[in-house]
Amino acid sequence: MEIRYPEIGICGLSCRLCPTYHAEGESKCGGCKSEYRIQAGCPFITCAVKKKGIEFCWQCDQNGTCEKWRGHREFSQKFDTFVCYQKLEDNITFVQRYGIASFEEMQKTRERLLREMLQNFNEGRSKKYYCISATVFEIQELKTAIEQARKVSDGLNIKERSKVLHTILNKIADKKQYCLSLRKQDTKAR
Fold first, then answer.
1. Whether the model pTM is above 0.70
2. DSSP per-residue letters across 47-77
């Protein structure tokens, strides 16, 4: 089948905002539907792409009754894995309302802002933090925060620039009650 949107996960996550998508070298991932990932054995890839020939779970005629899909969505409301799931339901709703092409354009904008944060404010330890920020913040909030950080940090070294942007983002996150860390499941409680 033809994969039209390799950077949009089968489940609705944006690969463009994942830390491994922005990795260097062999650990770099080209997206959930890249050749490497399709061979990796994800249950959603196996079911949707390999068995049913569809790109997204929401395209499946069984998406309303699929236990795997329901469990994934319920998990994403409380927890994350290596990537931020906090906007999964919003992503699915957006796609269903406005279409996948509009969603992809929005994710490209988010990725451009993420790349700017990574190039100009990453001291080497903030990639995951910036990926989560690019996922949970509204686009205009990101643009404003980056612009403000640029003005305030002109002439500072990378470590100081990073601290400036972190401070601005944390202030917005506190006000809007955004979570800027991965929400980990307590494995001891299971």
1. yes
2. IIIIII--S-GGGSTTTTT-HHHHHHHHHHT
